[in-house]
Automatic annotation (TrEMBL):
Keyword Repressor in record: no
NCBIfam families noted in UniProt: mevDPdecarb (TIGR01240)
EC number: 4.1.1.33
Domain Mvd1 C-terminal per the UniProt entry, residue ranges: 207-368
InterPro entries named in the record: GHMP_kinase_C_sf, Mev_decarb, Mev_diP_decarb, MVD-like_N, Mvd1_C, Ribosomal_Su5_D2-typ_SF, Ribsml_uS5_D2-typ_fold_subgr
PANTHER family according to UniProt: DIPHOSPHOMEVALONATE DECARBOXYLASE (PTHR10977)
Alphabetical UniProt keywords: ATP-binding, Lipid biosynthesis, Lipid metabolism, Lyase, Nucleotide-binding, Steroid biosynthesis, Steroid metabolism, Sterol biosynthesis, Sterol metabolism
Natural source organism: Lentinula lateritia
Enzyme class: lyase
Family assignment from sequence similarity: Belongs to the diphosphomevalonate decarboxylase family.
Name the UniProt record assigns to this protein: Diphosphomevalonate decarboxylase
Pfam families: MDD_C, MVD-like_N
Involved pathway(s): Isoprenoid biosynthesis; isopentenyl diphosphate biosynthesis via mevalonate pathway; isopentenyl diphosphate from (R)-mevalonate: step 3/3
Domain Diphosphomevalonate decarboxylase-like N-terminal positions: 10-193
């Protein structure tokens, strides 16, 4: 008897223009477009195996080896429903001999090789891996890089499904530089991820992940961003008057490999995202003292570098947690790591308690 099983993995992506706010909380439609870089090395990934079997009596999910409840009408169910519909309409209805996988229950097991829900975008890689794994099980995709035959569902179409799981997940369906276009249709069919440039376009771009604290975060992105939508006047200004211009400018900077513009926009957008979190009632604080020290160090390095060379050295960005991601070009990676490690010794030799831990005692991941 044939075994129907597929394993795929998807990396984390780190936003330069942040997604923060939904206009539709069920379909996960954002209040603004966003843009990210998908990390390309093996350090921050989710790997998911899906199996369909007519003997399974129910659909089950394991996360990092622990069985999780599947909430009726929840995010996973919505993703699964869309993928089953695609399988049925695009394959089973057209090929009478195709097994009716869409009618069978499935078992899904997913692993992260990094701390879950610590502001390291685990839901992004998690739902991207889940979507691509079930798409592979159903014969819908060729994700991520195999281009042997055109896929039945394109990465952008699959990004619509991943988006139903977690907004930022839609961007992890592509490598390199990726935009999530907010779209305007109530159905959400135009709210999808598109490739801005592949990783090979700007291979000297690196991202250094500084794990300041790998504990689970206090306010989840999902609940935090809705509180911001309900209470922040600054968010409305950001949506209308800031993000549209920034999206255009950063796409131009990426296409022209203009690091100075890329860095300026990335830092400004991280700072505005955290300002919007502070403008929420009650306020949300994601960064801590170590995060703020990293900002000061990078700002000072950039000031000196600008004086000496006329160019910026690095850009920091922070998601919904205290961990820093530092974008820099290959030629500056060594210098940045040396400086960060000098100011914040790594875990083993670090006299400070947990919140001061940097890199979790491991080498920082250099990407793409
Ligand atoms: C700060 O995608 O985790 O990382 O759609 O509710 O699952 P949900 O939220 P999520 O939010 C990510 C927010 C962010 C910014 C970003 O990745 O763009």
């Amino acid at each position: 008897m044939a075994v129907y099983q597929a394993t795929t993995s998807a990396p984390v992506n780190i936003a330069c223009i942040k997604y923060w706010g939904k206009r539709d909380t069920t379909l996960i439609l954002p209040t603004n477009s966003s843009l990210s870089v998908t990390l390309s090395q093996d350090h921050l990934r989710s790997t998911t195996t899906s199996r369909a079997d007519p003997a399974f009596t129910e659909t089950k999910l394991w996360l990092n080896g622990k069985e999780e409840d599947i909430k009726s009408g929840g995010r996973l169910e919505r993703c699964l429903k869309e993928l089953k519909k695609m399988r049925k309409e695009r394959i089973e209805d057209k090929e009478p001999n195709a097994p009716k996988l869409s009618e069978w229950n499935i078992h899904v097991a997913s692993y992260n090789n990094f701390p879950t829900a610590a502001g390291l975008a685990s839901s992004a890689s998690g739902f991207a891996a889940l979507t691509s794994s079930i798409a592979a099980l159903y014969g819908l995709n060729t994700f991520p890089s195999s281009s042997a035959k055109p896929s039945i569902a394109s990465p952008s179409e699959l990004s619509l499904v991943a988006r139903l799981g977690s907004g930022s997940a839609c961007r992890s369906l592509f490598g390199g530089f990726v935009a999530w276009e907010a779209g305007s249709l109530p159905s959400g069919t135009d709210s999808l991820a598109v490739e801005v440039a592949p990783q090979s376009h700007w291979p000297t771009m690196h991202a250094l992940i500084c794990v300041v604290n790998d504990a689970k975060k206090g306010t989840s992105s999902t609940s935090g961003m809705q509180r911001t939508v309900e209470t922040s006047a600054l968010l409305q200004h950001r949506i209308k008057h800031v993000v549209p211009q920034r999206m255009e400018a950063i796409i131009k900077a990426i296409k022209e490999k203009d690091f100075d513009s890329f860095a300026k926009i990335t830092m400004a957008d991280s700072n505005q995202f955290h300002a919007v979190a502070l403008d929420t009632a009650p306020p949300i604080f994601y960064m801590n003292d170590v995060s703020r020290s990293i900002i000061s160090i990078i700002e000072e390095l950039n000031r000196v570098s600008l004086e000496k060379t006329g160019h910026l050295l690095a850009a920091y960005t922070f998601d919904a947690g205290p961990n820093a991601v530092i974008y820099t070009e290959e030629k500056n990676v060594k210098q940045i790591i040396e400086i960060i490690v000098r100011y914040f010794p790594q875990a083993e030799s670090n006299p400070f308690p947990d919140p001061f831990k940097l890199f979790g005692g491991k080498q920082p991941a250099a990407v793409p």
